UniProtKB/TrEMBL annotation, chain A:
Coiled-coil stretches: none
Record's bilayer topology term: Multi-pass membrane protein
Compartments, as annotated in UniProt: Cell membrane
Cross-referenced PANTHER family: ANTIPORTER SUBUNIT MNHC2-RELATED (PTHR34583:SF2)
UniProt-listed InterPro entries: CPA3_antiporter_subunitC, NUOK/Mnh_C1-like
Protein name: Na+/H+ antiporter subunit C
Keywords linked to the UniProt accession: Cell membrane, Membrane, Transmembrane, Transmembrane helix
Pfam families in UniProt: Oxidored_q2
Superkingdom of the organism of origin: Bacteria
Principal localisation: membrane
Transmembrane segments: 6-22, 29-51, 71-92
Length: 116, 498
């Protein structure tokens, strides 16, 4: 179980980081989504992996799953979802206003853009 | 009244933003009135909070009255109350500039502005680091909205990069939260402070990995070298009023770092960051020399002032840390003033904008030139304004007899000299190299922007005049960070700890 989770999180993180390094916007969006899946899984196991245990403490129960990371994951999922939607909208607007789909920008010292 | 005081700075902006979205979607005048009412209410609450914590009291607000490690707690002590007051003042002053120049150029400016303030207040007041994450995200979502306000290709592509960088940082934040929770079993700063000494050595590695990762995230928000690359492009192209408010965002990173590392992890100091502070100083100052426009120059100048800030914060004694915190307030006011000034220049020079090139005569040149002179004095840190007092206070507490101390002196003074060169060059190009014939047909700078700039400059003057009491106040606040016993006691309460 631990090995499975570790491999899964590692694979998602590696793919996410690779995609974030690309110069087009769409792969970066995908990469950030994969990274957020990896963080969600990682948060999920932060309370240690337990299988078949009740989620809260009750009389006579000695082995239970930590409910707090599950609450954290819910919050993190909502935030990542909202952020991804916003990022896609921003990427589309940037694509149409600048005419190119790139995630990198020219160096600030290169040229002057008059922005009002 | 006092019992509910710590939640009000978060509640007022979120409620007023909701009312604005519901009532004033089309009605800009109503939105402005509501915005000013909200700003006034925040000022009053911030002053009350400041007064209530002035003697070193620590107000703890338990949401739903759940005891501390289980429930969510907001904590107001001297330092967070002072930061809240700074935010309220800056927000109110910048509104003057916003209503004259910015809120017409896109929709929902005022609700976004209030959400931005809410995120900043929340980050200053929260007592646990998962809510710190949530308030950071609120702050960032609002900042993305404000950053693209008005549109434009360069602004959008820079905002996109800013957003990607911050989303990666948010992922790191969550990884760090998971690691720390795994090792310590708590998310509360005070609870963490109690548990760190009892964590078994087998889990210490996980705690250190999580703690270091979280520090990296805060250093990125604070724009410390080598994580400063995103700032000049993003802030330099953002709407002036947003960039001026963002001068505070990097300070939120520095504040969170202090709170987390000194109180939560119980580190004795941030001395390891001193070399990074030197490099930050140098990178900012060299950037000022190379900047092609006033907006980008303001971005590099704020990086340089982050360097001075961290030279102060790297101290292990309360006096040096307190001087760093005094400089933090100055640096926020000065950074905001420079961004507002760049925005005003952009608005009156129709062709060249804020580019550092000579051009045709423009109206309001003498006024803006005079204001630029004062802003430059504040930014470089020449007497008599607060930049000089802040740098002097930081340097006075650094011993020149040890090698690190001497290096700090050299870097601070060298960076100040480079800033002086860069700002002189910028000022003479923009305000002196004008052709006399054929002035640009433009109106002068907007009254609200000039008023906001004058208020910010007056703020730095006042800040220099009250330097004695202010330094004493922040030295006490720093003492509370270095010896967090009272903080832990107040949050955890007697006998609550398992």
């Amino acid at each position: 179980m631990e090995i499975l989770f570790a491999v899964l999180i590692a694979a998602l993180t590696a793919a996410g980081i690779y995609l974030c390094c690309l110069r087009q916007v769409f792969p970066v969006v995908l990469g950030l989504s994969l990274l957020s899946y990896a963080t969600n899984l990682f948060l999920f196991v932060a309370g240690r992996l337990t299988v078949g245990a009740p989620p809260v403490w009750a009389e006579g129960v000695t082995r239970f799953a930590d409910p707090l990371p599950q609450a954290l994951v819910l919050t993190a999922i909502v935030i990542a979802f909202g952020m991804t939607a916003l990022l896609v909208v921003l990427a589309i607007r940037a694509r149409f206003e600048s005419g190119v789909e790139r995630s990198d920008v020219p160096a600030v010292t290169d040229r002057v853009e008059v922005e009002r | 009244m006092n019992a509910h005081l710590p939640i009000l700075p978060v509640l007022i902006p979120v409620l007023s933003a909701a009312v604005m979205v519901a009532l004033s979607r089309q009605d800009l005048v109503l939105a402005r009135v509501l915005s000013f009412i909200a700003a006034a209410a925040q000022l009053v609450v911030a002053l009350l909070l400041f007064a209530a914590t002035g003697e070193g009291e620590i107000l703890v607000y338990r949401l739903g009255d759940w005891p501390a490690p289980y429930g969510i707690a907001l904590v107001a002590d001297r330092l967070s109350a002072a930061m809240v007051l700074l935010t309220a003042i800056l927000g109110a002053v910048l509104l003057l500039h916003a209503v004259c120049a910015w809120d017409r150029r896109g929709r929902h400016f005022h609700p976004l502005f209030q959400f931005q303030l809410m995120g900043i207040y929340g980050a200053f007041l929260t007592g646990d680091f998962f809510n710190l994450f949530v308030f950071f995200e609120v702050m960032l979502i609002a900042s993305y909205g404000l950053m693209v306000h008005g549109g434009g290709a360069a602004r959008l592509t820079n905002a996109l990069q800013y957003m990607v960088v911050n989303l990666i940082a948010s992922s790191l934040f969550l990884f760090a939260v998971a690691l720390i929770y795994n090792a310590a079993g708590t998310l509360n700063f005070a609870d963490l402070a109690q548990r760190v000494p009892t964590i078994p050595s087998s889990d210490r590695g996980i705690l250190m990995a999580g703690g270091t990762l979280l520090c990296v995230v805060f250093l990125l928000k604070a724009a410390v070298v080598p994580l400063q690359f995103w700032l000049p492009g993003a802030y330099g192209h953002a709407p002036g009023v947003a960039a001026a408010l963002f001068a505070l965002l990097s300070k939120v990173g520095a504040y969170a770092l202090l709170r987390f590392a000194l109180v939560g992890l119980g580190w004795s100091s941030l001395a390891a960051l001193e070399p990074l502070a030197w490099l930050t100083l140098l990178a900012g100052a060299l950037g000022v020399l190379a900047a092609p426009s006033l907006g980008v120059l303001a971005g590099f100048a704020s990086i340089s002032s982050i360097g001075v800030l961290f030279v102060g914060l790297a101290g292990a004694d309360a006096a040096r840390l307190g001087a760093g915190l005094y400089y933090l307030v100055h640096s926020t006011l000065a950074g905001a003033a420079l961004f507002v000034l760049a925005d005003l220049v952009r608005s009156v020079r129709r062709e060249e904008g804020d580019a550092l090139v000579g051009g045709r005569e423009f109206s309001g040149r003498a006024l803006l030139g005079g204001l630029f002179f004062l802003v430059a004095i504040v930014t470089v840190g020449l007497p008599p304004l607060s930049g000089f007092v802040g740098k002097l206070a930081v340097l006075r507490n650094i011993p020149v007899t040890v090698i690190e101390g001497a290096a700090s002196w050299v870097f601070v003074l060298m960076a100040s000299f480079l800033l002086l060169l860069g700002l002189s060059r910028a000022g003479s190009r923009v305000f002196w190299k004008t052709q006399k014939d054929g002035g640009q047909a433009s109106h002068g700078p907007a009254a609200g922007g000039v008023a906001a700039l004058a208020l910010l400059l007056a703020g730095t003057l006042v800040w220099a005049l009250v330097a004695g009491p202010a330094l004493a106040y922040f030295t006490q606040a720093a003492q509370a960070l270095l010896e967090p016993g009272a903080y832990v006691q107040a949050v955890m309460g007697a006998g609550v700890y398992r």
